[in-house]
Specification:
Mean pLDDT: 95
Order of helices and strands: EEHEHEHEEHEHEHEHEHEHHHEEEEEE
Distance between the termini: 42 Å
Strand content: 15-25%
Largest sheet: 8 strands, mixed
Low-confidence stretches: 1-14
Number of helices: 11
Number of strands: 17
Strand order of the largest sheet: 1-3-2-4-5-6-15-14
Oligomer: single chain
Shape: globular
Radius of gyration: 20 Å
Helix content: 25-40%
Length: 370
């Protein structure tokens, strides 16, 4: 299987580096920009680990594999990385892909710290081999539903596509809104053209349309159609999965992409470490870092702490998740068991609802925190 090997410093010729396997989407149909940001955070943290002595004097090496948003490719990468002797796995952005990777990591007994995927059911059964930094979908998307209700939206339409991830999000939103008097209508984008969405919104008198679909297709054409329909001037477009976070959204949609609330996993103020990391990530990326870049950095920060404290034995790492206490870029990180979540979970990652300011699309406005 082809892939890339990157490290903050070249590994020693005697092969004594400590290896972490990295899973990220770097080619289409994966969300390439998200993968690039996750990887930038991972690589920055690895460089800093090596600049401060590595892991007990051994350099930390990232062995990177492109998942391309393909669950089968991710599972095969886990198999390969396990054979290569990595101490742990890190990364991944797409929830369905992360689920496939987590299942293989669990089966093979390789610790996996998932950086950015939110699907609640990351593994079929409870496991000690997998931990996660991002909040579970059930928490973040309920916060998003509370934002909608607080903003006066109770008649919600959702443009959806077939996917375990989108189906899970639809269920969370539908249940939470229904308990509070809201109604939800699904618009199946495998059967509707973007223009037909506009007619459906008018017919249903929806005040908000949520995009539970892929980016850029069909999300971008849907936004363009709704923005150009004068009948829908007051309809809110929302994207809980976070598509507007990255610059590709703004590049493709311009002003049409502003004012679209989405979930972002950042605090109102970064930690002192986070402020330093933000500067370094901006230089590395050539643009403002997204929240997924901070998730990448925090992933290596946690794994490096575990490796320094507990060594490189996979089983020792896996039993040490509950002992993690690491100051990350977005707060102090520790893992616990959360009801309904099958993996070790950072219980308190920050959650915001934000949008791009219509008067200045390069600036984000915090609309709600949870």
């Amino acid at each position: 299987m082809s892939g890339m090997i990157t490290s903050a410093h070249p590994p020693r010729r005697d092969g004594s580096s400590v290896r972490i396997g990295v899973l990220v989407p770097l080619t289409r149909p994966g969300w390439v920009e998200a993968g690039r940001h996750v990887l930038a955070g991972l690589e920055l943290a690895a460089r800093e680990v090596n600049d401060t002595g590595g892991i007990a004097g051994r350099p930390l090496e990232l062995v990177v594999r492109d998942t391309a948003a393909d669950p089968e490719k991710a599972a095969a990468a886990v198999d390969e990385l396990a054979r290569l002797g990595v101490a742990a796995l890190a990364g991944e952005y797409h929830s369905v892909v992360a689920r496939a990777a987590a299942g293989r990591a669990d089966a093979l007994g390789v610790p996996f710290l998932c950086s950015s995927a939110v699907l609640d059911a990351l593994t079929e059964q409870p496991t000690d081999w997998v931990a996660r930094l991002s909040p579970p979908q059930s928490r973040g998307w309920r916060i998003y539903a509370d934002f909608l209700l607080g903003a006066g939206h109770s008649r919600i339409a959702m443009a959806t596509q077939p996917s375990v991830y989108w189906a899970s999000g639809t269920r969370i939103l539908r249940d939470h809104l229904a308990e509070r008097g809201g109604t939800v209508t699904e618009l199946d984008m495998s059967a509707l053209a973007p223009a037909a969405v506009c007619d459906a919104l008018v017919e249903q008198r929806a005040t908000a349309l949520l995009l539970l679909v892929g980016h850029p297709e069909p999300a971008v054409p849907i936004v363009e159609s709704v923005r150009r329909d004068r009948r829908l001037a007051e309809v809110l477009i929302g994207a809980p999965a976070g598509q507007p976070e990255l610059t590709e959204w703004a590049t493709l949609l311009g002003e049409d992409g502003a004012g679209v609330p989405f979930l972002r996993y950042l605090p109102e103020h970064l930690t002192p470490l986070g402020a330093q990391v933000e500067t370094a990530l901006r230089e590395r990326l050539g643009e403002a870092p997204s929240f997924v870049a901070f998730e990448g950095y925090d992933t290596v920060a946690v794994l490096a702490d575990l490796l320094r404290t507990h060594g490189t034995d996979r089983a020792r790492i896996a039993v040490s998740w509950p002992h993690v206490a690491v100051e990350g870029t977005r707060g102090r990180i520790g893992f616990s068991r959360t009801p309904g979540i099958s993996v070790w979970q950072w219980a308190s990652p920050p959650v915001q609802v934000v949008d791009r300011d219509p008067s200045e699309p390069g600036r984000f406005r915090i609309l709600h925190s949870g």
